[in-house]
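2024-03-11 09:14:02 INFO worker-7 job=invfold-0412 stage=load source=structure_tokens
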């Protein structure tokens, strides 16, 4: 029996954690081409905090780490989302859903009811999927999974057959599709050396696994306390993120220069990574959680023939590819902690401290 109302955490506006309100809202109904999913678990990601604080707004210069307390007062309401668009409040966030299809809208095969699924958060349109106006994000341009039920178009409900729990499955969608795109953009080849910053986070830990599957040597940059687990995931060397000379530490770990740098940290590590790249090296970034403003010696780009790429919008089929690797056991979940949905604010606070390895999820 599907209830008429459900519990959800609603984001009421740009601001601090007080903008997250746990309340009763109407249970959504699947439109044509959509399914209704009973949420088993929903993972957290940086987009939730970035959007809440309007960190994406070009007028905001505060780092993400201070996102629970300041920075958002400078925001321009017209460009508060990842694609520099406006956000309509109230909105239910949460992109990383694992759950079960419990109802189907018109045009959807009712045989799908009862399927266990993960949601592909990229709501790509037909045509140019790299056009932000044609590429919405679940939990941003559409209500997401910080609720007991959610709707999504049927094509984005990706079936998964796995013995993993819903909480473990909810660590995959955003982090692992982002990491797969980040890695793909740099096109690593077997035998190459890759350095990965923010290696203990959801994207970083996924990138370690994905690079090892491609036959690369991985150098991880993280807290020493997390080194043992990162080696278990496949890192050959773990460098202290507080190393006084990061470039020198990378060169020592690589016994020379590296082929690829995968970065989610940003400003403080940008130039050391660039300097540690070999001739023709590749740098790919999907985030800048420690600072978005970096000085850049353009001579490194010009005279070292470097390739620099951003990695945000994931190509069609990325979630399906990740789901296949989950089913074969090639990818391992890293569940750092589970919170009840009502405690989403506390979960976000823990997420922002970055003291965990992997991802944090909430369960209704």
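2024-03-11 09:14:09 INFO worker-7 stage=emit residues=364
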């Amino acid at each position: 029996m599907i209830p008429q109302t459900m519990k959800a955490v609603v984001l009421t506006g740009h601001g601090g954690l007080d903008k997250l309100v746990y309340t009763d809202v109407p249970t959504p109904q699947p439109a044509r081409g959509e399914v209704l999913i009973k949420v088993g678990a929903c993972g957290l990601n940086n987009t939730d905090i970035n959007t809440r604080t309007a960190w994406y707004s070009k007028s905001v210069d505060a780092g993400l780490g201070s996102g629970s307390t300041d920075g958002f007062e400078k925001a321009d309401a017209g460009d508060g989302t990842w694609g520099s668009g406006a956000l309509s409040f109230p909105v239910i966030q949460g992109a990383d859903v694992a759950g079960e299809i419990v109802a189907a809208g018109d045009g959807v095969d009712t045989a799908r009811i009862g399927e266990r699924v993960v949601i592909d958060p990229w709501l790509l349109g037909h045509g140019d999927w790299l056009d932000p106006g044609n590429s919405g994000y679940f939990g941003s341009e559409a209500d997401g999974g910080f609720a007991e039920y959610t709707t999504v178009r049927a094509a984005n409900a990706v079936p998964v057959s796995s013995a993993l729990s819903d909480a473990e499955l909810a660590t995959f969608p955003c982090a692992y599709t982002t990491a797969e795109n980040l890695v793909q953009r740099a096109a690593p080849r077997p035998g190459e050396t890759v350095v990965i910053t923010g290696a203990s986070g959801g994207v970083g830990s996924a990138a370690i696994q994905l690079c090892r599957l491609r036959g690369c040597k991985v150098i991880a940059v993280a807290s020493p306390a997390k080194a043992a687990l990162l080696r278990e995931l496949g890192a050959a060397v773990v460098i202290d993120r507080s190393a006084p000379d990061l470039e020198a530490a990378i060169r020592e770990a690589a016994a020379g220069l590296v082929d690829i740098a995968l970065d989610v940290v940003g400003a403080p590590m940008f130039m050391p990574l660039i300097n540690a790249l070999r001739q023709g090296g590749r740098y790919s970034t999907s985030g800048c959680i420690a600072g978005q403003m970096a000085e850049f010696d353009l001579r490194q780009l010009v005279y070292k023939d470097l390739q620099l790429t951003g990695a945000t919008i994931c190509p069609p089929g990325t979630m399906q590819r990740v789901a296949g690797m989950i089913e074969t056991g090639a990818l391992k979940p890293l569940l750092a902690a589970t919170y009840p949905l009502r405690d989403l604010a506390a979960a976000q606070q823990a997420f922002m401290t970055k003291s965990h390895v992997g991802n944090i999820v909430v369960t209704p």
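2024-03-11 09:14:09 INFO worker-7 stage=report msg="Residues 134 and 202 are 26 Å apart (CA to CA)."
2024-03-11 09:14:10 INFO worker-7 job finished
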